[in-house]
Amino acid sequence: MPFEEIKQSILEGDVDRTPDLVRTEMEAGTAAATILNDALTAAMDEAGRRLSSGEMFIPEILFAADAMKAGLDVIRPSLLDGEEGAKGTVVIGGVKGDFHDIGKTLVAWMLEGAGFKVVDLGVDVAGETFIDTAREHNADIIAMSTLMVTTMPLLGANIKAAKAAGLDVKFVLGGAPVNQSYADRSDADGYASDAPGAVALVRELIG
Amino acid sequence: MAGSLRIEPLASSEIDSMYEKCVQILVDHGVKVEHETALKTLGAAGALVDAETHMVRFSRETIEWALAQVPKEFVYKGGDEKHDLLLPHPDRSFHTSTCIQSMLYHDPATGGFADVTHDSYTEWCRLIERLGNVDICAIQTPMDVPAETADVHALNIQLQNTSKPLAILAYCLESVPYLFELLLARAGSTESLRDRPLAAIHPTALSPLVFKEMDLETIILACKYGVPIAPASLVMSGGTGPITIAGTAVLVATEIVAMIVMAQLISPGLPAVPCVYNYGLDMSTGNALMTSPENLLAQAVGSQFVKEAFGLPVWTSSMGGDSYVSDGQMVAGKNLQSAMCAMAGTDINYGAGRLGGSNLASPVQLLIDDRMVANVKRVIAGVEVNEDTLALDAILAAGSGGHYLRQRHTLNHCRDAVRPDLFVAEPLDTWQEKGSKDLYARAVDLYEEMRLTLAPLELPDDVTREMDAIVKRADEHLVP
Predict the structure, then answer these.
(1) Can you give the pTM of this predicted structure?
(2) Do B359 and A177 touch (CB under 8 A)?
(3) Cα–Cα dist B321/B324, whole Å
(4) Within an 8 Å CB–CB cutoff, is residue B299 touching chain A?
(5) pLDDT of residue B375
(6) Region A54-67: what's the mean pLDDT?
(7) Closest to A57 (Cβ–Cβ): which among B101, B150, B284?
(8) Domains of chain B
(9) Please, which residues bridge with residue B236 across strands?
């Protein structure tokens, strides 16, 4: 199995061994893009599959993502323009007035781990910041969350403002008080109740 | 009698060690406080404030002074003194509160969920007024009112439909004053409100170790009006807190003590009842877990630790659930957790009516929980052993081969046993004749019967007019 050792090292979350293995592969003459696609990204795809099936747990996924990034740092200088090949770009944040961070951050980490480029705006994010950042990074998706009833209306308001501004992105929502019905009413493209669900949703929307 | 049934998950040496960790965190690291006025007030009162980082630290002396100011017992009062609750519970038993902030009620007619509305929350409050074992009505979230003032609308509904003690919290900084205005309007005067505060209000930590502007404003106004605080920590083990049970208990207690110290520095002697509301993070799905075995134990540990380490009554999330319907999983989790927490010393059992997650509830589950509480209370009360209960005379009178049904001793005690009406105790034939209904179906029948006779409180017209006017003013000022 090609790159089995690298993939195994990533799946074990080994941030020390993974870059060494990648470096060895580079020195053997393997193209950086091949290592990226067939080792690093393939390992995270497998991690995603194992998370969905319950074989891997969230902290293990996060450490795997760290190991993948450590490997990516080794090959990045050798990648040609466009080869880094993120699967898509997601701008993510908690809406204005909401300071709950952990769920949103977990989603951001797991999206990164799944190979997406993620721009994490943190919490208490103004509507125009979502729009400006999405434009700046040519984002595919804006992901917004809130855990507070009082800030829920901002989800729909931000979507409305972004669409009025002519932004061509998809919107996904999350957070404890949000549900599919509320996401539908907010004119969102999708809703996920947990981090693995968010990753699956983004995969589906970006295709 | 040896006393009510007790469990002690922690040894006293472990409690001492955990206490020291709490103090060490508050002395060395401190907490982040996002409220400019509070920072100045706390600094002037002796806290160590870093104006740039908003970190607030407390000396050991300040912490211990503040804890000594908190009343070790107080009466948690509602609108009618017949519902007053003494804390700690005088019989080492517990009071029960409903769940909080529900946004969806399970509808027994459709089997699905529907938004909590002004009308359905009104019915919920009136139902609580009629229940014998649900003592505290906690705020819910009507979804057909403006989101910006949902808490103000909800408190108005509570005040007009139940005279039991209330548990409330603000949903945003701007609504905090309106909540106190409503309490004041219902009480009649600041003196009346101080004497009968009608509610306890939750300031809540943004775990780990952050306190939002809204929660400091809540503490400041609670201090001003003399409304008891119920400082709550909702640490999520493995997410916003340590994954271990002991570490979770330390962080929960640290956040609670921080809020108590801040309140006591502003208003020494303000009653407080700590709320241990932590839960678990499922490492596989990221879902919140209320009744996993670890969280069952964590709640019991938190109850014992806070009660014994700080000498305060404790309010524990002990009737949560992870199922989304009123099924066997729900009853198994609630029954075990409420019994464990009660035996570990909790004074208020939180969560009646809750289904899985943090915003689902069911009026039918509320009725089941009401009856379940009766069972748990009886079990933890323990056994009384005296000359009468030892029943030697009855045993000798029945002799060999006799019976006890016509004995005066049996007559005297035949109504002692708890017989919750929703739990089957009848012969099989009778149960079948009544339709072979399970617990949930019987509870639905009871709910449908009860809802026909529910009624609002009879409050003076001028009081309800004033409260309605406050809500209207909140809408005008806070809703864009």
Answers:
(1) 0.92
(2) yes
(3) 8
(4) no
(5) 94
(6) 90
(7) B284
(8) 67-380 (3.20.20.480)
(9) B279
